[in-house]
Each structure stands twice: as C-alpha cells, then as structure tokens.
Amino acid sequence: MGNKKKLLGEDTQDGWEFKQGIAGEANVKKEIQLLRRLRHKNVIQLVDVLYNEEKQKMYMVMEYCVCGMQEMLDSVPDKKFPVFQAHGYFCQLIDGLEYLHSQGIVHKDIKPGNLLLTTNGTLKISDLGVAEALHPFAEDDMCRTSQGSPAFQPPEIANGLDTFSGFKVDIWSAGVTLYNITTGLYPFEGDNIYKLFENIGKGDYVIPEDCGPPLSDLLRGMLEYDPAKRFSIQQIRHHNWFRKKHTQCEPPIAIPPSPETKDRWRSMTVVPYLEDLHGYNEEEEEDDLKDDYLEDEIIYTQDFTMPGQVPNETRQNGQSCSRGLPKPVCMNGTETGQLGSKTKAERRASASSNPSRKASSASSKIRKLSTCKQQ
C-alpha cells in the first residue's frame, strides 16, 4: 500500500486525501480498479488518479476523511468507545461490508486502522490494497491468499489452510474490531506473530463480563471457530444487540486535534501540499487573487422588501417609480468602480474574510499547481 497524506488547512468544506502509490504497485493498481466501480456511503470514494512523470509517482485522490477510528481510540486512556458510539460505527461497518460482499469483493483487512470517519461521523471502509474481487461466475467465495493484519486473522488462516471462505474472514475481522472498540482489548494476543497465530489457531478467548449477555453472544457468533457456523451478515443484522437502540450514558469520544497542526477543528485544504510539491509563484498568486476578487466579489443586488417596509421602487409620494437594472456591487457593499483602486493588502484582507472566495481561489491554485496527468 502507498502512503496516505491528509491535506490540512483552513479553506474548504470538502477536502481530499492523497494516497501516494510508491510501494506495492500491483496492490495500488488493483485498489484503483476496485474503487472505480464502488459507490456506497460507507466505502471510501476515489475522486481521481494523478501521475507525476517527473517524480514517477502515482497519487490517488480520495474523498476527505477527518481522521481514522484507530486515532480516536488512541486518544483516550481506555482505548474504547462508549457502547452507543461503538454500536453506531459497527452498524455502518456492516452496511459497508454487506455492500462490498454484494459486489463480490472480500476486503481481507478490516480493522480500526482502515476505518475512516468524515466530519459528520460517517464511517468509510478504506484501504482495499489486499482486497480480492471474486470471479463473476465463481460458485462460492473461496480464497487462497491473505495479507491482512495478524491480530485480525481467523483460525483458518492462522492454521495455514489452503482455501477459506473470504466473506467469513471479513466477518471474523469485523468481530475482532467490535471486540476491540467495545473493550479496548484484543481477543488474541502474543509476544510475537508465531505465538499470536498459535493462540488464534486454538480459538480460545475470554469476553469481559461488563460486555453483557447480548454483546457477548454477538461476539461469540462472529468469532466462531468453525467458519461454517460463524455468523453471516444477515444473522448479525437480526441480532438483538445490533437492532437495539443504545442509550447515550456518557459523552462520545471526540475527534482529537490534528497531530501535525494541533488544530482541534481539523480544517482542510490541498493547497499547501501542492505548493510544496510543485512550487509556489507569488506573482501568479497575486494575479489569481485579483482575478478571483473581481469575479467572485461582484454580484447584482436584488431588490427585496423587509417585513413592514414600504417598497420605494413602487411608490414614492403616491407616484409610481420606474424600476431600473440592479446596480453591480460587491458583497461588502463596494461599488465595482472602486475595485481597481484596492491595494494588494486590502485584497488579501477581503479574501481572508470570505470563505466562499477562498475556496474558489484554492481551486484555481490547485489547477495551476498540479502538473500531474490524469490516469
């Protein structure tokens, strides 16, 4: 898998996330092929693919997610979510997983680190680099390779079986994820990967008593040793714990401040990253600033009447008045004739106070800065 870069700043409501395809080229290309055919609210969306010939790097432009689930867990001492919050995320995970399976795709690496969250709390399944697309005419979901994270692998993989049910692997990994986000623990641990796989292969684990009977029963069904007896998506959906509305008894875990900028709001823009990648020209920036100011600040006023106000364009001293064309003015009230006299500092000040104009300027800079070719 390639490296992911979250593009942070302060300009836009919608952002992007870049994933650099610098390692595992085959996995990256496979992920691109899979993502291009997927459209679901709980699966990360691929916006574009760019290629920089000079640097020989591929960039996957994803929809922006404000942080990962693992990052949220790591921000609190007990490493777990309140039950109502964990339930909400888990339901979204099952929705996304059901969609992937309906498209014949086995994810193979479900874990908190691959579950991202948007600013409104929507969960996105990401990182399909090791996923497998089943043959359209395959009779079953049997797979032969696995490259997922060791702690989330099922007994059939830990024991080295040649073939295994891909969908049941995802169910197991989702069960380990649910166990982790509700207890702060892992059902199986080991000092090294060999010991870890030995423990997973035996299938012995303990569910903390404070999980309660309904959650414990769901976990046992998802962490069933025998894949044939392991819960299916539909069995999970019909389970009492899944269908129950859980009361909020404590505050939810909040999205932590950005580790790079310490910005608790995690505002975003791709502009600083592109400036660093492709260079920055101050003269072009000034031209863009003025052009965007002239283009975006000018609007035509629309005549309207406030409640209780007599419309002066229809009646003055009992006489009718002609209605002329609206005068072109700026959003801040400045007439267009005064725009050319604005100083550079005044234009910058106006730009910084206008979020909509800043977003437009950011888009203009992105187009100028990016020298990548679309794939």
UniProtKB/TrEMBL annotation:
<feature type="compositionally biased region" description="Basic residues">
    <location>
        <begin position="365"/>
        <end position="375"/>
    </location>
</feature>
<dbReference type="InterPro" id="IPR008271">
    <property type="entry name" value="Ser/Thr_kinase_AS"/>
</dbReference>
<feature type="compositionally biased region" description="Low complexity">
    <location>
        <begin position="350"/>
        <end position="364"/>
    </location>
</feature>
<keyword id="KW-0963">Cytoplasm</keyword>
<dbReference type="GO" id="GO:0005524">
    <property type="term" value="F:ATP binding"/>
</dbReference>
<dbReference type="InterPro" id="IPR039154">
    <property type="entry name" value="LKB1_c"/>
</dbReference>
<protein>
    <recommendedName>
        <fullName>non-specific serine/threonine protein kinase</fullName>
        <ecNumber>2.7.11.1</ecNumber>
    </recommendedName>
</protein>
<dbReference type="GO" id="GO:0030295">
    <property type="term" value="F:protein kinase activator activity"/>
</dbReference>
<keyword id="KW-0547">Nucleotide-binding</keyword>
<dbReference type="GO" id="GO:0042593">
    <property type="term" value="P:glucose homeostasis"/>
</dbReference>
<keyword id="KW-0460">Magnesium</keyword>
<dbReference type="InterPro" id="IPR011009">
    <property type="entry name" value="Kinase-like_dom_sf"/>
</dbReference>
<dbReference type="Pfam" id="PF00069">
    <property type="entry name" value="Pkinase"/>
</dbReference>
<feature type="region of interest" description="Disordered">
    <location>
        <begin position="304"/>
        <end position="375"/>
    </location>
</feature>
<dbReference type="GO" id="GO:0035556">
    <property type="term" value="P:intracellular signal transduction"/>
</dbReference>
<dbReference type="GO" id="GO:0005737">
    <property type="term" value="C:cytoplasm"/>
</dbReference>
<dbReference type="GO" id="GO:0030010">
    <property type="term" value="P:establishment of cell polarity"/>
</dbReference>
<dbReference type="GO" id="GO:0004674">
    <property type="term" value="F:protein serine/threonine kinase activity"/>
</dbReference>
<keyword id="KW-0479">Metal-binding</keyword>
<feature type="compositionally biased region" description="Polar residues">
    <location>
        <begin position="311"/>
        <end position="322"/>
    </location>
</feature>
<comment type="similarity">
    <text>Belongs to the protein kinase superfamily. CAMK Ser/Thr protein kinase family. LKB1 subfamily.</text>
</comment>
<dbReference type="GO" id="GO:0046872">
    <property type="term" value="F:metal ion binding"/>
</dbReference>
<keyword id="KW-0723">Serine/threonine-protein kinase</keyword>
<keyword id="KW-0067">ATP-binding</keyword>
<dbReference type="GO" id="GO:0001558">
    <property type="term" value="P:regulation of cell growth"/>
</dbReference>
<keyword id="KW-0464">Manganese</keyword>
<keyword id="KW-0808">Transferase</keyword>
<dbReference type="InterPro" id="IPR000719">
    <property type="entry name" value="Prot_kinase_dom"/>
</dbReference>
<feature type="domain" description="Protein kinase">
    <location>
        <begin position="1"/>
        <end position="242"/>
    </location>
</feature>
<keyword id="KW-0418">Kinase</keyword>
